[in-house]
Predict the 3D structure of the following.
Amino acid sequence: MSIDVLSVRKRQEGFQFVNELESDSDSDVEMANDEDKVDSGEVAKDGTIVTPGELVTDDPVWMRGHGTYFLENQTYASVAGTVSRVNRLLSVIPLRGRYAPETGDHVIGRIAEVGNRRWKVDIGAKQHAVLMLGSVNLPGGVLRRKSESDELQMRNFLKEGDLLNAEIQSLFQDGSASLHTRSLKYGKLRNGTFLQVRSPLIVRSKKHTHNLPGNVTVILGVNGFIWLRKTSKVDNASDASNVSGRNAATLSGASGDYKPGSNSVSITRLEEESSWEIYSDKNDPIPEAMKRTIARYSNVIRALAHCEIGITEARVVAAYEASMAYSHVGSLIDKDNMESIGQDVINAEKMRGNA
Amino acid sequence: MVMSLTEKRYLQECLISKPPLRPDGRNDDQFRPIEVFTDFLPTSNGSSKIVASDGTECVVSVKSKVVDRSLEDDLIVVDVDITGRRDDSPLVQEIASILNRVLLLQIDQEQLRLTQKYSFKLYIDVLVLSSYSHPLTLISFAIYSALNSTQLPTLISSEDDLDVAELPTFHDYDMSKLNIDIPIMFTLAVCGQNVIVDPASSESDVASNGILVTWCKGKVGAPIRTLSLNEEYTRGIHPDRLAESIRLIEILAPKVLQALDG
Amino acid sequence: MSRLEIYSPEGLRVDGRRWNELRRFECSINTHANASDGSSYLEQGNNKIITLVNGPQEPKLRSHTNATKAVLTVSVNITRFSKTERSKSSHRNERRVLEMQTALVRTFEKNILMHLYPRTQIDIQIHVLQQDGGLMGSLINGITLALIDAGIAIYDYISGVSIGLYDTTPLLDLNTVEENAMSSVTLGVMGRSEKLSLLLVEDKLALDRMESVLAIGIAGAHRIRDLMDKELRKHGEKRLANVSSNQ
C-alpha cells in the first residue's frame, strides 16, 4: 500500500486565505441595484434568499414565524436564509444555525452536569436539555417509584461525559428541551463510537436506528450526533418487528442472527432488560473486523457530511459500498476521496431515478 | 471534550491492538491532511497559516529586526498565544519554552549574521486560533513554512564594519530568502505496545504517554522527551517505544519535509 | 524629511484614492466552519480580520445567565505582528482594547434579537492579523458577517467606516497614515437607513463640518453593506445549489 503520510494543500496567490474563494469581483465596480425589491402588498416568494433587514412583506395578514421580526406593520427578515410559507405562517429558514429541538425528535446527548433530580444534557442546541430522574427507566422495572436513594446514586446511572439516546418529550417556554428515555430503544450508549455532523444533514424520519450490513447499527440523532455500534439483541428485535421499508442489503446483513420469537418486546422483557446492565460501563467483546467496519462507516458518514449530502440509511450503505474501492480505511480521510465517494452516491441515485 | 467511559474503553482497546485500529482508520504513521497558506501578511517578513482537518488552526508571523550582536543574546524569540488559554497556563508555557529552546539550539545563529557587528533578530509569533489536539506538531509545521517563506532585505553596505560607525544599509526592494536549517517537531502517542503519529484529540485522551521527537539537519536531534497528553491514563513508557518513535520519525521526517516543501 | 502629501491639490490621497472612495473591500463567510458557529474573514484595505462567533450556547459560568435574554461577550485580540513594527506588549487588557470591546458589545446588544435567546451566551472572538487604520469600522463589519453566518437573528446589517476631516474636506475610509494626520470619526450605520448605532469621535472636530462628514460616512457605509450583502447572497445561492442537487 502506498499512502502519503501527509497530504498538504498549498495556496499562495492573492486573497488566498479562504477556501473556495474566487476573487472574481473588482470592488471598484459600482454595484448594480439588482435585488428583487418587495412591492407593496406582496410577499417574497417561497425559497428566495433574503438577508437581515430585508422587507419580506408589508401585508399584516401573515403570521410571523422564526427568522422574522415585525416593525410598523411590516415584516422583515432577521436571518439570512430562505423564505418559507406554510399556510399563513411566514418564516425565514437560516442557512446555518444550531439544532432547534422539536417534540418527538430522536436525539443523542452527552451528560454535561448532574444536578438535583435531573441531568443536564448537551444535545448541540442553544441550551442544554434536561433529563429528569423521573423520565428514565431505573433498574428494577418501569413501574417502580423513584426513591431518595436513587437521587443519591444518580451518578451510578449516568455521569458527566456519558452518551445517551433519548427522545424530546417536551419543550419549555424558552425553547430548551426536556428528554425521556422510557423505551428500550433509548438509554445509555455502549459498544461503539461517536461522531458529529451538522444537524440539518439528518432528515427527520420515522426511524433513526438502522441495522447496517456487517452487524453494525447506526443511530442518526436528529441533532447531528451519531452513534455507531455493534448490533445488539434489542436492535435485532426492534428491526424484526419493523421489517417493512428496509432495503434488501440491510436484510441480508442483519438476518445473520435473526431469532424467531424475539420479534416483539413484551412488558416482561422490558422489565428483564431494565436491570443494572442498561447502565453498565463495560463493552461487549467486539471482534477486530467489526471495529474496522465501524471505522469505515464512520469515515463514509464524514465523507457524506463533507459533501453536504443529507445522511440517510440508504446513502450510508451506498457510500459504504462505494468506499470499498479504497481498501485502506485511512485513505478515506483525504478530501479528494471523500468527494469522489459523495459523487458516487449522488450519481448512483440519479441513475436509479432515471431508470 | 469529555468522553464516556465506554467510548474510552472502546477506543483504548482499538489503539492497543496490533496493529493499532485508529478511529479514522489511519495507519500508525499517517498524518491528517493539512492545508498550508503562506505569505499573506505583507507587513511581516514571513507568514503561514496551517489548518488541520479537525479545525485546529495556527497562524505564524516572522518579523525581523537588525540588532547589534554584542547587545543581544538570543537572536530568535518565539511568542505563543493559544486562544482560550491564559499566557501563564502550563500548556502555553510548556510549548513556548520548548519552541524557544529548540529553535535556539538547532538554528545556527551564524546564519542570521549580517555584518561583523550586526545580525538579524527574528521574532516568531504563533497564534493558535482553535485547538482540539496537542498543537505542537502543527505549530512546528507552521513555523517551518513561515521561516521557509521568509524574505529579508538584501544588504548593500560592506560586511566589514568593525571600525566604521555606520549602520548597515539595504537595497530598496531586493529581498533575499532566509536560508537556515529549520527544525520540525513531531508528537507521537504511545498506546500500549504501539506508537502513533499525529494523535487526534480522542486518541490523546486515552494514550498512555506522549513522545516529542525533533528532526533537524537531516537527523533526529535534541530534544527528545515525553509529553503529557492527558492526566488520567499517563504512565511510564518502555525504552523500546522511544527507539521505535525515533525509527518511525527517521523514515517519516524526509517525506513530511518533502510534502511541506511541495 | 519630506512630508507626505495627505491630500494633493489635484484631489488625490496618499494611496491614490479620491476623497469619497473606499479601500478594497473583500469578505468571505463560513471560513472556520469546524471551529465556530459562525465565522468571517475580512480584508478592508490592509486590515485583515478573522471573526469567530460561538453560540448561542449554554453559559460557561452560572453568573453569566440572564433569564430574559442572551449575554454577549466580545474579545478583541490584536496580534503583536499586526502593524509593520512588532509591538512589545500583547495588547490584552489595554485600556484602548477594553474600550473597543465595550463599545462593540453595546452596539451589537442593540442589534441582536437578544430576547430570543434567554439563558444563553454568545461569544465573539476577533483576531486582528493586520491593521492599517479604521480598525473599529472593520471590526464592526467582521462581526456583522459572522453573526449572520451563525444564523443569529439581528435587526439589520451594521456597517462600519471611518471618515476624517482634512482641512475642510471629508475623507472616506482612512488608512493609518491619514488617521494619524487628521481628526476622524467612526460610524456604525444600520442597514440602508440613516440610523447610527455607533458614533465615535475621539478627536477635535469642527461641528459645522459634521454634517458633510456624516453624509459621506453614511453613503460609504451603505456601499459596504451592499458589498457584504452581495457576498452573503452569493454564498447562500452556492449553498442552496449544493443542497438541492444533493437532496
